[in-house]
Each structure stands twice: as C-alpha cells, then as structure tokens.
C-alpha cells in the first residue's frame, strides 16, 4: 500500500495510472481542497 507523502500538493495524481487506487482518491481530495487556493496549487 502506497502512503501519501506529507506534501501540501499531490502533483503526481495526474500521472497515476490506477485511478481506482485509494492513493489516487485521496490525492484527488487534496487537489479539490487546494483548487480553492490557486497560489498553493502551483
């Protein structure tokens, strides 16, 4: 099981092949949260 690094952004989500993985889902959740902060997302 892959653990998500304690990083403010999960950029690797876009490169994840297995979109059904738990890691990807959690990653997407973080992206949605940071999408409210464009400065943080970049």
Backbone structural class: mainly alpha
Cα-to-Cα separation, first versus last residue:
27 Å
- State the helicity in percent bands: 40-55%
Mean pLDDT: 61
Using the CA coordinates, give the radius of gyration: 10 Å
Order of helices and strands: HH
Biggest sheet character: none
Topology of this protein?
Layout (H helix, E strand, L loop, with lengths): L21 H13 L3 H4 L1
Keywords:
single chain; 0% strand; 2 helices; mainly alpha
Quick synopsis:
With 42 residues, the chain is mainly α. It contains two helices and no strands.
Description of the molecule:
- The structure is a single chain.
- This protein is an all-alpha fold.
- Helix content is 40%, strand content 0%.
- It is built from two helices and no strands.
- The longest helix is centred in the middle third of the chain and has 13 residues.
- It is elongated and about 25 Å long.
- The protein starts with 21 loop residues before the first helix and ends with a helix.
């Amino acid at each position: 099981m892959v653990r998500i690094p304690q990083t403010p952004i999960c950029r690797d989500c876009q490169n994840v092949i297995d979109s059904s993985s738990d890691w990807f889902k959690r990653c997407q959740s973080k992206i949605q949260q940071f999408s409210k902060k464009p400065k943080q997302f970049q």
